[in-house]
Amino acid sequence: MLLSPQQESKFSAALSKRFENEGVHSFLENFEAVAQKHEQRRQKIKKEGEIEVEKSPLEFRLTFGERPKGLTQSEFELLYIETLYTIKHKIGTTTSKHSGGENDLYAYAQEAFGLSNEDHQRLLGKANEEKPPILILNVEIVEAKDLEAKDTNGFSDPYCMLGIVPEIRKFVIPQQGTSGVSSDEEGANANSPNDNKLGFMKRLKSFRKSTIRRAQGREKTTSLTGSSPHNVLKDKLPAKYIQTTDVKKATLNPVWMEKFRFDIESGKTETFHLDIWDHDDEFSVFEAAKKLNEVQGFKGLNRYFKQIAQSARTNCSTEGSHIDDFLGSVNLKISEIPSIGIDKWFSLEGRSENSKVRGQIHIRAKLTTREDRGIPEEDNWTDIKQHVELLQIFIQHELNKFKGEKNHWTGELSRDAETILHQHAIQGDITDTQRSMCRWIAYSKKHLERPLTNKLLLSVTEQLERTWKSTALSRDETDMLTEAFTLFINHCFKQLTRIRELFPANNRIAIERLEQLLTIIAKLHSMEVFRYCCPFQNNLQYELTSVIKTGTIEWFDRMVSQITKPRLRSDEDTLRNTSELVYVIIADAYSAVKYYNPVFESTTKMTFYNISLKKIDGKLMDIVIKALEEELGDQIHQSPAKLLENKEPDSLDALTFASSAEQISLALFELYLSLHELAKYKIYVNETDRVNLKIIQYHMYFGAAVKKWLSVARNKILHRIERSVEKDKVEGTGTFACNVKFTSSSLDVSNCFSQISQFWRRLAWPDIISSITYLIKITEDMANATRLYATLVEGKLNARKFYETNDLSYYIQELSLTVNDTERIRESFKTLPIELSYDKLLVAAEKFHPITVVDEYRKKIETTVAMCSQEITDRIYQILSKVVTNIEMDLKQHLFHIIEAPELVSSQDTVQPLFAFLDTRSAPYREYLIKQNFTRLLELIWSVLIDQLLSEIEKVSTPRSIASYVRLTKALDSIVDYFNAEEQCLTKEALKTDKYKLIKKLLKYHSTDTHSLIKLYYQEKVQEQERTGINNQPPHLTDLGKLYCRAYYHLKEETLYVEILSCKNLKPCDSNGLSDPYVEVQLCPKFLYPHIETQQTVIVKKTLNPSFNEKFEFRLTEKECNLSGGVIHFTVMDHDLMWSNDFEGEAFLDMSKVIGIPNESNSENRPLDELRQIELALTHPKAVRSRIIEILEIRTSDKVAAEFVRRRRETENQ
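Above: the chain's sequence. Below: its structure in token form.
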């Protein structure tokens, strides 16, 4: 509803009338109540935000359509068969963290899959029908160290030959020629080859291979035997059992990092065997083994290692042959390899107890299986999918078994589950990276169905990061992981869009979950595997910003729909609902700053509230502006200065709007306070974004509201003043108690001022310049209220004909209450700008505005306060002056008796009647007046006494005795002591006014003899000369020019030397605008230097700046020079031939200042020519009224006085 200025005035007047019969300060008190309610809401928000809630928060659940697709019945049964097949063909020895019992594993699988015994037996039969898998040994030869040096260079050229030794059978080693025996076999062949006392391990000490270096040696051996090494071994050895590593040249610490794969026929009896040899020939056991392995289709034999060695020796020459040196061997039984594999350093062994070998070799070995299904061995995609599905079933089973709260489950599986999963992984040759991938996919997908702890998900994520390698996954596996990443990330982002519901800020558990969730998201985005699988995913900051914005808008819209209801009754409902919405956002801001910000900053380096507030800032302010426009119209867009320019008429009939006006004003104030509180959170927004926030300009839309508040408050205060003064009815002295010094009206009005100050502090208007504008208006309004109150209370006193009576005894208390109340209001108003903190506001304004502008504001405020305060003070003095006027005649009579008392009467006796009179008359006022007003009354009495005493002293025409003036001085001191006493409370500073000081001076002069008085006169002239131009004397009497001179006293010669140098800027005395100046020099007073004659300079014609440069000598003794009161008197004259000489000016130089005169103030002793010149201002005797001349003038019988006065008067008249 938009009101015209006339309607607004009518509105305010009607509002005042509406509450005329209600409480004294209902309007302002209600504003304070709103402010206190706001403070309670603010504290409640803070308190609720600090109370930690332990209750588990809501869990985010996907809808049915969002859940991952499950297994069909046939897929479910096939997975169970695969599980039973894995258990039946368990490989490797069982470790402590796995379960070894086959029946226990069957039972756990049946329980996890939830199958009946019949289904279990049926599917177990199908698993038993499956063909057993092929056992495979994967070996990695990593490195060796500290091997024995076999070559002359101090190194060896090591390589490894490794293979599987079949089950042991009794056999006879055919005796071959010994010419090709290696250097390490000499002791080993001492016994018969048929000796079975050596055990299996002793027979496997080495492959016993040797090499022949020269080609011709090889050819010779071949011709002798009639067959090649390949032909020798063709029907005896399966070549695939023997494999070799590369030769590492010239090293004792070779690094191979080579992998080998062996099929195992019977895992219970076979042994893995490894030899290390030093390569010494172009053709050796190394080449023999490689050639042999080209042959296919051999059956297993139990002596193939030695046969390989023999095949390499077949054509060795007897002399000069070179053999491979044996460096050591390792044996590892297949049945002893644990299911988790083995990764360790093995110490190398010799062929016999006498063999000397050293060093260690690092071997990694693990068992796996391969099923004969017609697919490549390296393709385990089916196993990986089954592993994920098996993991999900076991996870669900463990969750169902868990007895505590599901969100407390740590994700740990039972030993049986871990055993089955482990066997499935090693039998399917699933790598560590693939297992981590499967584990992450299984847990993350299960999380979509049934929320798991974020801590568990984080640990699974970290495990995936530790094991992942870019080349470790196939395309299908990468796609599978990508799909899981996408599902999980989207799921997390959906949770974050409902952060306020799922992660309430004051819930410790929820905040911990939020931190873990953000940590997982941040971890995923920082992981190489995530970037590899999801290369087109936006960066984390972009994604989270989008999620926070979306979630905040959705939350804000829900809050708006819940809180902002359709208007059913009045505009008040819209304003209050808007305020409630702002309070909800304040609570959200507090939670965001206290809880969400630290979590987001620590995990993602982002600020939650910075994003949140920016998103809802504009939408919120649109709602606020719309609500304000409905109530205040287009005025909300006007500046405060323009609003205050429109003056309101005093009256208009607007009772139609009065009933709801105050409630709407209060609703507006509540909305303002809530927005003011929300705007404080701008400090948590980045500085670059802060300036664009609309919330920081919230106050710009409340200018019309503030104007309305101030106008209504002003009208109510003015109306309240009238009513309060009217209620203070005083019918007689018995109406009030004796100790009452104020009426209720002053308390009422003073409280109004206090409430205005409190209202301004609560308002805390953020804009400095408009704040000053409002502050000036408040000051002016309260000044008018103060004047109104003073006028009304004085009018009541005047209505009782106070000023017309001469008997004030009946009005003492009423008069006292009037001035006391007035002073109370004056003090309240005087301190109002201080309570409004105007000085701090102006100091702050200096940072943004020119000092001249700020000084204008300061001057306007201080002038308003000072003028009003002085006006009220004058009113108080005016009322109190009636009391003084009433006793003025009595005061004058008492003072007359003091002055005219006989000389024999002591000063103390003369003042006692006055003191007794004052005690009697001031006693009632001392009781009723406050200290400040009683002091004012005494000041008025003192002023009357001083004025009368000064008048009596100044009008004396005949001289009195010096004794009478001495007594009068003592009487004045006694009066001062009386008014300065504790009971009267007048300070000596207040008593010693200018008139008092003049009286003291005049009394001193009257009490002084003529000679001393003349010396005082010259001392005053010196002082007057020094003050020339300061005391605002007329220019024609003071601006007379300067005289420059030097003075020096020669002690030995007893001569005073005076040099007159020049004059400047003299007054023109002739018609030509110039003068003919000269200077007269004399020592004064004359009675001190009777023998000294006046001397003068030459006349300098037609100039105002004459130069004299003349020296004068005065014969003076040291004693004469030190006489008190002596001066050098310079008189500048204008020479006239026809008429008397004209007076230009005079100057005085104190003798005590002359250089060379021995005294305490003079220590210089220099020749006259070296002395600095002295500048003296020329003065006129009439420039300052001389009280001494006036006093000497009445001493007509004193010839010295009369002569002195005559000469001075002549000078004055020139």
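The chain has a mean pLDDT of 80.
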